[in-house]
Amino acid sequence: MVKSGDLKDESLLTSAFQGQDVVVLMPPLPQLVSLQEPAVRAAAKAGVPYILPAEFGPDPFASKLIEENQLLQDKKKIRDLIEELGVSSWISVAVGPFLDMNIKSGLWGIDVENRKATIWTGAVGKVNASSVAQTGQASAAVLSLPGQDLSRYKNKAFYVPSFHLTQKELLQAFQKATGTADQDWEIDYQDVNDALKDCNDKIQQKDATAPFVKFFLAHFREGSGGDFESKVDASEVKKLHEIGLQKEAVDDVLKRTVS
């Protein structure tokens, strides 16, 4: 069934959501709140048990990341609204930032096309990440869990990242994928605190890219919450693999990205 119309029309959305077990939301980032709020209200009116809001990314409970990032604050608004309405439950599929899509835009500090990299010194933490395709498959696997298993994740996160690596390890993985070495790259170094100050200055100047650069910078700071490997429950992830979720290798993802 396909219904078309204004995505802010709660009546239309309520009609579309009738009888559904779950609503999955993934609006464009600039409309993260404006398009999700009416959908969440409509899902509540329709009695939808579960909502997967646009939570395909970082740990939703990483308080330091949330404090520093407007995008994550907006995501929290949606989770809070779902809980406030008290009808549906949200589930976050926590995979970390998208590795492949964000590499292409240089947001990891690595410009593959021009073989340039800026290593943020002092940002030595590891970050969990996944590919876009794996995120979709992981979400489908989570929703394929038996009802009793799925109910354990009401207003919680299912942690199922693919990768766990530092920025330097990511650069090394790209060098392996491209058959290059340090001497083939222009590598600069910038203190992470200086880089964050630059981002904040640019944000004040309404630079559109700066908030996203800051988002990745903050992830690599130890203790920020970008590393949630300790929250991954191997026995729960195994259930997803038994359903059919395949593991992905960083080498394969990066080779596809640069091909």
Detail the topology: elements first, then pairings.
Elements: H1 10-17, E1 22-24, H2 36-46, E2 50-52, H3 63-68, H4 70-85, E3 89-94, H5 99-104, E4 110-111, E5 116-121, E6 127-129, H6 132-143, H7 147-150, E7 156-159, E8 163-165, H8 167-178, E9 186-191, H9 192-204, H10 210-219, H11 234-243, H12 250-258
Parallel strand pairs: 1-2, 2-3, 3-7, 5-9
Antiparallel strand pairs: 4-5, 6-8
Protein name: NmrA-like domain-containing protein
Keywords: NADP, Oxidoreductase
GO molecular function: oxidoreductase activity
Q: Could you please describe the fold and organization of this structure?
A:
The radius of gyration is 19 Å and the shape is globular. It has helices at 10-17, 36-46, 63-68, 70-85, 99-104, 132-143, 147-150, 167-178, 192-204, 210-219, 234-243, 250-258; strands at 22-24, 50-52, 89-94, 110-111, 116-121, 127-129, 156-159, 163-165, 186-191. The protein is of the alpha/beta class and 259 residues long. Helices cover 45% and strands 14% of the residues. Helix 1 (10-17) packs across helix 2 (36-46) and helix 8 crosses helix 12 (250-258). It has a single domain (10-258), classed as 3-Layer(aba) Sandwich (Rossmann fold). A 4-stranded parallel sheet has the order 1-2-3-7, sandwiched between helices. A 3-stranded mixed sheet has the order 4-5-9. Strands 6-8 form a two-stranded antiparallel ribbon.
